[in-house]
Design a protein that fits this description.
The mean pLDDT is 91. This protein starts with 20 loop residues before the first helix and ends in a 7-residue tail after the last strand. The chain has 472 residues and is an alpha/beta fold. It has a domain at 376-465: ANL, C-terminal domain (GMP Synthetase, Chain A, domain 3, 2-Layer Sandwich). It contains 13 helices and 21 strands. Strands 9-10-11-15-14-13-12 form a seven-stranded antiparallel sheet, covered by helices on one side. The structure holds zinc ion. Residues 295, 297-298, 302, 356, 358, 360 line the site of zinc ion. Zinc ion binds at residues 295, 297-298, 302, 356, 358, 360.
Length: 472
């Protein structure tokens, strides 16, 4: 990628640039990440270990909850130093540390928050998970943790070879919007904003609040002609469906970027078909920042293993083999404000195998089906990702929005917003594809609705179970 020359701190010293403090620090981290992305698993585990130990020692010194857990696992400083652990033993002890559930984080609250941060870690802010089902999780985060997140955001620009001089449009929630009416709410900014614009000169960016009719959003896209569009995958799907259904020619786009939700596997294909543009979907969470990015060459997700220790475990708590889908357990390494060691974030992921054509050796995920709490419950009570014949629904041109609700252990209902009612053949097609994909054990019905609402933060649950998870 041809990155522009960074901003220089001194007039008359243009190239090579001497960046000023925050940019210099970001570039220094980015440079180290450029090396670590080619390390073997063993090399990476070795260079990362001192950071994991710094986090554990800080947690153990300040919080009784972690002191007890770390001691029981043999990972407190005294036991560790006496044993002079080789890496395999270290890993074994790490794996014996109990998984921390969301419910524990909610109930323990302040017992997981430190009172003192080391020098330079800055002040403590808070990230709140969307919590569309159940209570939200509140995570204290340090300024330094945000700084690391920014360095990884820069890495994604580099991986995706983005043209920083392009126009960048985000369609997300704009909290500055006060009046919610039929009009669009658009803000124009001179550059892409931090972190990219801290380091490099960039083109302009735009923030379009998502709370406007879909037609108005599409008209704004046609007017602005952005090079990049960043939005929720479910909203991108609505845009593509409207454009396809009504023959709207969307202006050329370099790349669509999906954030905030899991992307359905067929969305990338539809984006290429309708808009001629690739889709990059990032795997991030409010608790942790970036967890996986898609490389341009291989199209699969590489774990951001320098930022977090990410494990994918099967139902027995063992690491999943390539091809298997399991629960994501994450340890963010740089947030000393609220250390989370082996936190079960509530997502599922499918482990992939290398090598990747991009040459990077960071571990691979083949798929990120999304939130574990949005799983389909089989009549037996077992759970699995909700494959319900997504491709069939995508093919029906008059469908503008869809949502699948599991109403009981043997029934699912498709809620559809349509431009016109489906033909008999289309109904049969959707129901047959869904029945087949669901394994024949479910009755399938269709319900037409005028609108399907998003949660206040703009996210959209494409699949939901309407009956109680815990009591069933
Ligand atoms: Zn790759």
């Amino acid at each position: 990628m041809n990155l522009p020359t960074p901003h220089s701190a001194f007039p008359g010293a243009v190239w090579p640039a001497i960046p000023q403090a925050p940019a210099a620090a970001l570039l220094a981290v980015l440079g180290q990440l450029a090396e670590s992305q080619f390390m073997t698993d063993e090399q990476l585990a070795m260079v990362r270990r001192p950071q994991a130990e710094a986090l554990m020692d800080h947690a153990g010194a300040q919080l009784p909850f972690w002191r007890d857990r770390l001691r029981a696992a043999g990972l407190d400083p005294e036991t560790r130093n006496q044993a002079a652990l080789a890496m395999p033993e270290w890993n074994e002890r790490w794996a014996s540390l109990p998984v921390l559930s969301r419910a524990e984080v909610q109930s323990l609250g302040d017992q997981l928050r430190v009172t003192h941060l080391p020098n330079g870690h800055g002040v403590v802010g808070e990230s709140v998970t969307s919590g569309s089902s159940g209570r939200p999780v509140r995570i204290a985060r340090s300024t330094l943790d945000y700084f690391y997140w920014q360095a990884f955001q820069l890495r994604e620009h580099v991986w995706r070879s983005r043209d920083l001089s392009g126009k960048f449009l985000s369609i997300l929630r704009d909290d500055r919007r006060e009046l919610i009416d039929e009009n669009i709410h658009l803000r124009t900014m001179a550059d892409w904003g931090p972190p990219a614009s801290v380091v490099w000169p960039t083109g302009p960016s735009f923030l379009l609040d998502y709370r406007s009719p879909i037609r108005a959003l599409v008209a704004t896209i046609c007017e602005l002609k952005p090079d990049y569009l960043c939005t929720f995958p479910s909203l991108l799907l609505e845009i593509l469906r409207l454009a396809r259904g009504e023959g709207i020619i969307l202006p050329p786009l370099i790349e669509a970027i999906g954030v905030g939700e899991a992307s359905p596997p067929e969305l990338a294909g539809l984006c290429r078909e309708v808009w001629g543009a690739p889709l990059a979907s990032t795997y991030t969470a409010a608790e942790t920042g970036a967890m996986a990015y898609q490389c341009l060459e291989g199209g699969r997700w590489h774990l951001q293993s320098e930022k977090s220790i990410i494990e994918v475990l099967d139902s027995n708590g063992h690491p999943c083999a390539p091809g298997e889908t399991g629960r994501v357990i994450v340890t963010p390494l740089h947030n000393l404000a609220m250390p989370l060691l082996r936190y079960e974030i509530g997502d599922l992921a499918t482990v992939g195998a290398g090598p990747c054509p991009c040459g990077r050796s960071l571990p691979i995920l083949d798929a990120i089906p999304g939130r574990a709490r949005d799983l389909l419950m089989l009549p037996s009570g077992d759970l699995r990702p909700p494959y319900y014949g997504h491709a069939a629904v995508m093919k029906v041109r008059s469908i503008r929005q869809h949502q699948v609700i599991q109403t009981s252990r043997n029934h699912v209902c498709f809620r559809l917003v349509v431009a016109k009612p489906l033909t008999r053949e289309e109904v049969d097609h959707v129901i047959k594809s869904a029945t087949d994909a669901l394994g024949g054990a479910f009755g399938v019905s269709i319900e037409y609705v005028d609108e399907i609402f998003r949660s206040p933060n703009g996210k959209f649950a494409e699949f939901e179970r309407s009956f109680d998870f815990s009591n069933d």
